[in-house]
Design goal:
about 220 residues; two-stranded antiparallel sheet; alpha+beta; about 15% strand; elongated; binds zinc ion; 8 helices
C-alpha cells in the first residue's frame, strides 16, 4: 500500500469492524480505505473501484489534497447514482454536492437533487454523441457547436467543449476557454473536473461557437477552426 493513503485519517472503526461498508461481506482477507469516500472496504470492492473510469480522477485529486496537507480529505464521492458518462464529465464540486444531498438530505432535497441529476444526465448524453477529436476541423464557427459548458460561479472563467477524445479514457477535449483571454485549444477534462470551483452547466443547450463569442462580446468571432 502506498504512503499517501496512510496520511488520510481513517474512521474510528476501520481496524475493528468485521464487515465491508460497501458489500457487507466479511473482512477476513484484508481491508482498505475506499479511494472515493471514507468507507472501509474488502479487497474485492477495492478491485471494483480500480476498474472504474473515474478511479484515476479519485487518485489524482487525493494526491493533490495530500500534497497540500488537507486533513480529513473526504474523497471525490462514489456517485453510484451517476452514469459512467456523467462521472467522466462531472466536476468534483458537484459530485460531492449531489452525493451528500442524495445520501442525507430531506425528501424534498433529495427530489430536487434527483431533478439536477436528470438534467446532468442530459449533458452526459450530449457528451456521448458529440464530435470526436478533429471532426470539426476546418468548419466555420457559425457551424461548430459547443456541446458542454463549464464555468466558475463568479463567471470569471468559462469552457465550452466542441470535441472530445475518441479513445476509451475521455481526458482530452477541444474547445473554447475564457480565462485571461478567450482562446481555442485542448482542454484536459480530468484537470477541469478537479478544479475546486468549476461546475458543469446542467442546463446548457448546444450552441454555435459564433453565438457563444457573441454572448461574451468576443471580437474574434466568425473565424474558422
Ligand atoms: Zn466489499
Amino acid at each position: 500500500m502506498d504512503n499517501e493513503q496512510t496520511t488520510r485519517s481513517t474512521k474510528d472503526t476501520f481496524f475493528t469492524q468485521a464487515t465491508c461498508d460497501r458489500c457487507g461481506g466479511r473482512l477476513e482477507s484484508g481491508r482498505t480505505m475506499s479511494r472515493f469516500n471514507r468507507d472501509c472496504i474488502c479487497m474485492e470492492c477495492a478491485a471494483k473501484e480500480r476498474a472504474r473510469g473515474d478511479y484515476p480522477l479519485a487518485v489524482a485529486v487525493e494526491r493533490e489534497a495530500v500534497k497540500r496537507g488537507i486533513r480529513d480529505y473526504p474523497g471525490i464521492g462514489l456517485c453510484e447514482w451517476a452514469s459512467e458518462s456523467l462521472r467522466t464529465i462531472l466536476p468534483i464540486t458537484q459530485r460531492r454536492f449531489l452525493d451528500s444531498l442524495l445520501r442525507s438530505g430531506s425528501e424534498d432535497t433529495r427530489r430536487e437533487a434527483a431533478a439536477m441529476v436528470e438534467a446532468a444526465e442530459q449533458q452526459a448524453k450530449a457528451f456521448e454523441t458529440m464530435p470526436k477529436t478533429g471532426e470539426t476541423d476546418g468548419q466555420p464557427e457559425s457551424r461548430v457547436k459547443a456541446h458542454l459548458h463549464y464555468f466558475v460561479p463568479t463567471r470569471t472563467a468559462d469552457w465550452w467543449i466542441t470535441e472530445r477524445d475518441a479513445d476509451g479514457r475521455q481526458i482530452q477535449a477541444f474547445g473554447l476557454a475564457r480565462l485571461w483571454e478567450t482562446e481555442l485549444g485542448y482542454i484536459n477534462l480530468e484537470e477541469l473536473q478537479a478544479l475546486p470551483l468549476v461546475e458543469l452547466d446542467f442546463y446548457w443547450k448546444p450552441t454555435t461557437l459564433q453565438a457563444v463569442r457573441e454572448s461574451i462580446g468576443d471580437e474574434m468571432r466568425g473565424g474558422v477552426i
